[in-house]
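Lecture notes, continued. The same structure-token format from the folding unit now serves as the input rather than the output. Read the line below as a description of shape only.
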């Protein structure tokens, strides 16, 4: 009986130790500390990529929690996290889904701000998404697909043009015509080149003669221009003298037309003019009689 009691006690102790080891093993594997307490927060992102459950939540690089749930809410993704109670999140903090490995591993990264107001547990906080290796590989796949489509288009274009036998025949025909045209042009150049050289030589000779003619005519032209300048100066003097003569004539005409002198009176008095005309005719007749009969002078003495 005593042996059975010892056996039962040993079995019970082993089972109890196994249960204790199992419990502590579960906490160790789940990275849980029975003495720690946590708050729940909800983070909202446009996307989370390869973020999965139990991914770490790090505050300024220190692991302080983990992801507990990921769900789709409308056009956004809501991530439920648990965070140690001794961590307070200021409202100006930055929260991002970050890439931490070359295989696309993710984590929630928090950079605490300096605001004096804090998010309360169970609040919903907007976060940001950082692109990583997975997005780069996805973009590379899209680029490869676009490149493949482009290469297919280029291949089809080449097959319809350069690789086409019809195009090759036309291209050879164009090359043959171009070669024939080149031969004709060379023949034309070889034929006309001596004539062109001769024409250029004649043109140079003519230009030399024209230069000599211009050099010979230049001095007389210069003298002619100098004489023209002198004539213009003399003409200016003559015009001045004519203006003086015109001024004197104007004064003389004014005096003649004035009645203050004899000429003016004669010109303005018609009767005097007629009397003078009669007197001149009488004198002319008297001179004619004297010239014909002589002068007969009678002297009477008293």
């Amino acid at each position: 009986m005593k042996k059975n009691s010892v056996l039962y006690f040993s079995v019970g102790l082993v089972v109890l130790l196994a249960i204790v080891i199992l419990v502590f093993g579960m906490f160790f594997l789940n990275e849980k500390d029975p003495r720690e307490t946590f708050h729940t927060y909800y983070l909202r992102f446009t996307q989370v990529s390869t973020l999965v459950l139990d991914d770490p939540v790090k505050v300024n690089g220190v692991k302080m929690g983990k992801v507990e749930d990921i769900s789709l809410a409308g056009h956004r993704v809501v991530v439920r996290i648990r965070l140690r109670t001794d961590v307070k999140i200021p409202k100006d903090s930055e929260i991002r889904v970050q890439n931490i490995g070359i295989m696309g591993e993710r984590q929630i990264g928090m950079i605490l701000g300096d605001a004096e107001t804090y998010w309360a547990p169970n609040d919903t906080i907007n976060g940001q998404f950082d692109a990583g290796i997975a997005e780069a590989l996805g973009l590379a796949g899209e680029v490869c697909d676009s490149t493949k489509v482009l290469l297919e288009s280029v291949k089809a274009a080449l097959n319809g043009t350069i690789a086409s036998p019809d195009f090759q025949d036309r291209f050879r025909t164009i090359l043959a015509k171009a070669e024939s045209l080149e031969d004709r042009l060379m023949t034309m150049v070889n034929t006309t080149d001596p004539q062109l050289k001769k024409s250029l030589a004649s043109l140079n000779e003519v230009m030399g003669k024209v230069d000599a003619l211009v050099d010979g005519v230049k001095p007389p032209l210069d003298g002619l221009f100098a004489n023209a300048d002198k004539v213009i100066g003399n003409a200016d003097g003559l015009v001045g003298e004519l203006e003086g003569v015109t001024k004197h004539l104007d004064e003389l005409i004014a005096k003649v037309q004035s009645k203050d002198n004899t000429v003016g009176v004669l010109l303005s008095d018609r009767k005097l003019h007629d009397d003078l005309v009669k007197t001149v005719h009488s004198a002319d007749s008297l001179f004619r009689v004297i010239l014909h009969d002589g002068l007969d002078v009678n002297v009477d003495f008293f």
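Point for the exam: The mean pLDDT is 76.
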